[in-house]
Amino acid sequence: xxxxxxxxxxxxxxxxxxxxxxxxxxxxxxxxxxxxxxxxxxxxxxxxxxxxxxxxxxxxxxxxxxxxxxxxxxxxxxxxxxxxxxxxxxxxxxxxxxxxxxxxxxxxxxxxxxxxxxxxxxxxxxxxxxxxxxxxxxxxxxxxxxxxxxxxxxxxxxxxxxxxxxxxxxxxxxxxxxxxxxxxxxxxxxxxxxxxxxxxxxxxxxxxxxxxxxxxxxxxxxxxxxxxxxxxxxxxxxxxxxxxxxxxxxxxxxxxxxxxxxxxxxxxxxxxxxxxxxxxxxxxxxxxxxxxxxxxxxxxxxxxxxxxxxxxxxxxxxxxxxxxxxxxxxxxxxxxxxxxxxxxxxxxxxxxxxxxxxxxxxxxxxxxxxxxxxxxx
Length: 377
Hints:
Blueprint lengths: L8 H29 L5 E5 L3 E10 L2 E11 L7 E13 L2 E8 L2 E10 L3 E7 L5 E9 L1 H75 L4 H25 L8 H61 L11 H45 L8
Antiparallel strand pairs: 1-2, 1-8, 2-3, 3-4, 4-5, 5-6, 6-7, 7-8
Helix pairs in contact: 2-4, 2-5, 3-4, 3-5, 4-5
């Protein structure tokens, strides 16, 4: 068989083909070596939105010994990350496996499933009695950590949402509380105006009634008593004078009558003194009535100031003030007028009484001296 010369095109084509075959064989061998050199996974991973399970075990003579690392999101609000490690033993029979979970060396429960080297499938009992297959895929510790990080991130997001919700709720509550406080403050301010209106109304009524009573203060009755008693005293003294003109009489009998007349004049003087006592009683009543009106005036001033303050504090302007400064000033002026009138009545009565007292005292002295001037003894 003739070989092509090494420098011919055919020879180059054959050389290229041989080189490519060598490269393919080399890569395949490397890949195959890599496959043969790869060991079993670190564990078997199953994850969901709320839970990450990672099973790790060793096998010897078809006997399994390992644990399941369970990381789950709790139902707390906000949720937390809860980690549980449960040891187990098991048995492998071909592709079938049986796993028994233990606690302090005691068997708790067993589950069955299948295992093909890279995928572990277990039939997990549910609370309602059903079995649900859970698939665990071969994974590295890094894969497990990443799955836990994803779950932690979800929890962190929910925690943040909860915190934001709480903050919003607190802000809303604070706003609602502020609104309620504002409403209560407005209601209190409105009630304060209503109360101030009522108090001022009562104070004005009291001032008006008491001022009218003071304005009607009169000494007419007491002065009439003075006048009547003074007239009686004058009449009795005139009688004494008339009897004295008749002389001493037999055995001074007429003298005795004149003395009796003088005693009657003294009695009239005592009646004038009784009128003085009545005048004093009138003065006490006048002072009481005057003090009442003055207290009413002060009450009106105080209640008017409180009403003005209540209106200033009431931003709603409802209800308005029921009275104006003119209403208050007019009421106070009327009270002052009543005081002035009553004071004038008292001064006049006092002056009249003084005159009655002076004249009665002088007349009494004359009446008492008259019997002695008869020289009947």
